[in-house]
Amino acid sequence: MFLGACRLKKRILIVVVGLCTCLSLLSCGGKSNGQVTVRDRVLASQGVTATLVFGSLVVVNGQNDTLPRVSPLNAGNSPGLIVVSPTRNIAATFDSNSNNVFAVDTSRQTSIGNGIHLPGATSSISVPTADPTVYAAVPTATVNGFAFLGAVEVLNFSTNGFTTIAASNAQTVVSNSQGTELLVFSPDSDAVTVLFPGVAVPPVDTSCYTNPPNQVCNIVRDSRLSRPVNAIISGSTAYILNCGAECGGTQQASVAVFDLGSLTVTQTIPVDAARMAYLSGSTLYVVGTPPTAPANSCTNQTTAATICGRLDIVDLSSGTVTSRVSITDGYHSRMDLTTNGQLFIGSSNCTNIGNVNNPTGGEIRGCLSIYNISNGSVIFPPDNGDVTGLQGFTTRYVEYVAEGGQLRVYDTTKDILLINDFVPQGTIDIVGFVGDVKAIDFF
User: Most buried one in 4, 166, 297, 424, CB count within 10 A?
Assistant: First the structure.
């Protein structure tokens, strides 16, 4: 009787513990395999900074800014740039340590293949559709037996293979929404290369060197193009950013309105500088750093910085600049507009002032500017470092900012760091260097 009673009590105890464990997991959205289900996911690229830390894509809970019990995704040792497809089912990242591009199936939260090796580094990749096809611009690409430098690599993660389309010093690639037409930009060039990758002949297509224009390649030259570096595509129109004097050109910076059907420039809109842009409706926000005074002066600012960048607000319906604002200087490469009208603008190699880790009461300033589109004010948060990633949400008034290698969380109602029990320092605690951040769920 005594032994029987003990066995009965042990069975009851096991059942109770099991029920408690199940309830605990369910309350967290957990699974029986130890992984936690996260509904609103964000990926942050984590570079190696210690011998016990491996580079990866880290999953962040975008609703409470925490790191859930979820395995990181393989992305090499030094992943940085992350690009997500419009449907957010595919995420791609570049590992600068191995020159590999890694792709992720976000619905399964698993890697696709083992990565595809590029013949050089890239700072520009595009994932235009839900298909696992990635375009990467590689300015130093070479292929044995061919006399060219630079290419756009068409990476097919379904077959783990790629096609090389030779394009001289290709540094930036921008795709239309179908992935059927690519605009390619090269430094020190006053032309735009237009590629039609669907008819490129693998493994190496040299159509750009064999009497273009042809069905694969068209090189557009126009006197109104001055060091074009990037573009925003909307439907059948591309707004090409003429970097001009900032990039060594001879003309003033401008926005060239480009018809993708006829491959012609229809209009140019002069601006102070044009390195990066963000399109919202019929308004184009254009940023850059003018090379000379007075255009690069820090107008209406009290700062130790002697050079500032410029934000030009362009009304596309009238083709005019309606407002100009001084922002931080540097190489502008990140922009994002929040649901409550805060335009986050990030740059690298800017003028850093003060030391956020050792404040002395003086000015602290880095590479981040926040422009309020409703009242025209601009804020420079007291932080230092390059801004390499921005991500906002529609269900929360916060902005994730990869800044100085850390992942900051900004409260966009006040444009200051969010401080609460989850992020007491305003920073999500990711070990390693955070190079970029992207949401892989719509929220």
Answer: 166
Structure tokens at 60: 């962040």
Q: Which two tokens stand for residue 10?
A: 């042990």
Q: pTM of the full predicted structure?
A: 0.91
| 314 contacts 264 by C-beta, under 8 angstroms | no
List the structure tokens of 226: 């001055």
Q: What is the distance between the alpha carbons of residues 27 and 157, in angstroms, rounded to a whole number?
A: 37
CB 170 within 8 A of CB 179: no
Strands (E), 291-432: 309-315, 320-327, 331-337, 342-348, 368-372, 378-379, 387-392, 398-403, 406-411, 416-417, 427-428
Instruction: State how far the alpha carbon of 96 is from the alpha carbons of 77, 329, 334, in Å.
Output: 8, 25, 19
Q: What are the DSSP calls for 43-106, one per residue?
A: EEEEE--STT---EEEEEETTTTB--S-PPEE--SSEEEEEE-TTSSEEEEEETTTTEEEEEET
Q: What separation in angstroms does the CA of 330 have from each of 270, 291, 302, 439? A: 20, 11, 18, 26
Kindly list the distances between the CA atom of residue 89 and the CA atoms of 1, 318, 440, in Å, as whole numbers in the listed order.
Answer: 60, 37, 7
Residues 6+ apart with CB under 8 A from 49: 431, 432, 433
pLDDT tens track, the chain, 443 positions: 233 444 434 444 444 344 444 334 333 444 434 567 899 999 999 997 655 567 899 999 999 999 999 999 999 999 999 999 999 999 999 999 999 999 999 999 999 988 999 999 999 999 999 999 999 999 999 999 999 999 999 999 999 999 999 999 999 999 999 999 999 999 999 999 999 999 999 999 999 999 999 999 999 999 999 999 999 999 999 999 999 999 999 999 999 999 999 999 999 999 999 999 999 999 999 999 999 999 999 988 999 999 999 999 999 999 999 999 999 999 999 999 999 999 999 999 999 999 999 888 899 999 999 999 999 999 999 999 999 999 999 999 999 999 999 999 999 999 999 999 999 999 999 999 999 999 999 99
Q: How far apart are CA 244 and CA 252, in angstroms?
A: 5
Whole-Å CA distances, 134 to 74, 114, 118, 229, 368: 17, 15, 12, 20, 29
Tell the burial category of 34 from Cβ atoms under 10 Å away from its Cβ (0-12, 13-18, 19+): exposed
Q: Are 76 and 62 in contact (CB under 8 A)?
A: no
The answer to whether 385 touches 345, Cβ cutoff 8 Å, is no
Instruction: Pull the structure tokens for residue 127.
Output: 């994932």
